[in-house]
C-alpha cells in the first residue's frame, strides 16, 4: 500500500474552522463512496491552527488521474468541493486553482 501526505490551509477564522470540522464529522455518503471507489483505503485529516494535514493510503488500483476523472464526473463531489472551498485557502506556494498540495517525504525511521 502506498501513502501520500498533503497540506492545505483553512481560512484563519475560528467560526469557519469549527464549521469545517462539523462537516467532517458527518461527511456525505456519496463522498465516502467516491473516496473508497477510487482505491483510497485510509484517509485521515489532522488540524493544527488553520493548517490541514491529510494522510492517504491507497491500494494498487489507485491513480491520481483516475481519481481526478472520477471527481470531475461526479456532481456530488463537485458540490462538496465547492462547499469546502468556502472554508479552505490555498497554501502560499500553491499554483492557481491548486488545493491540497502533495508533500515531499524527507525522513523515514
TrEMBL record:
Q: Which residue spans traverse the membrane?
A: none
Example of a GO MF term: racemase and epimerase activity, acting on carbohydrates and derivatives
Per the UniProt entry, what species is this protein from, by scientific name? Answer: Neotamlana sargassicola
Supply the InterPro entries for this chain. Answer: Carb_Metab_Mutarotase (IPR052996), Dimeric_a/b-barrel (IPR011008), Rham/fucose_mutarotase (IPR008000)
Tell me which Pfam families the record gives. Answer: rhaM (PF05336)
Q: What is this protein called?
A: L-rhamnose mutarotase
Amino acid at each position: 500500500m502506498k501513502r501520500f501526505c498533503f497540506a492545505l490551509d483553512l481560512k484563519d477564522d475560528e467560526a469557519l474552522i469549527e464549521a469545517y470540522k462539523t462537516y467532517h464529522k458527518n461527511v456525505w455518503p456519496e463522498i465516502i463512496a467516491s473516496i473508497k471507489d477510487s482505491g483510497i483505503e485510509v484517509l485521515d485529516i489532522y488540524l493544527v491552527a488553520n493548517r490541514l494535514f491529510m494522510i492517504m493510503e491507497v491500494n494498487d488500483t489507485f491513480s491520481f488521474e483516475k481519481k481526478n476523472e472520477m471527481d470531475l464526473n461526479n456532481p456530488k463531489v463537485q458540490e462538496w468541493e465547492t462547499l469546502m472551498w468556502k472554508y479552505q485557502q490555498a497554501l502560499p506556494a500553491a499554483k492557481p486553482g491548486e488545493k491540497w498540495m502533495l508533500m515531499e517525504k524527507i525522513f523515514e525511521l
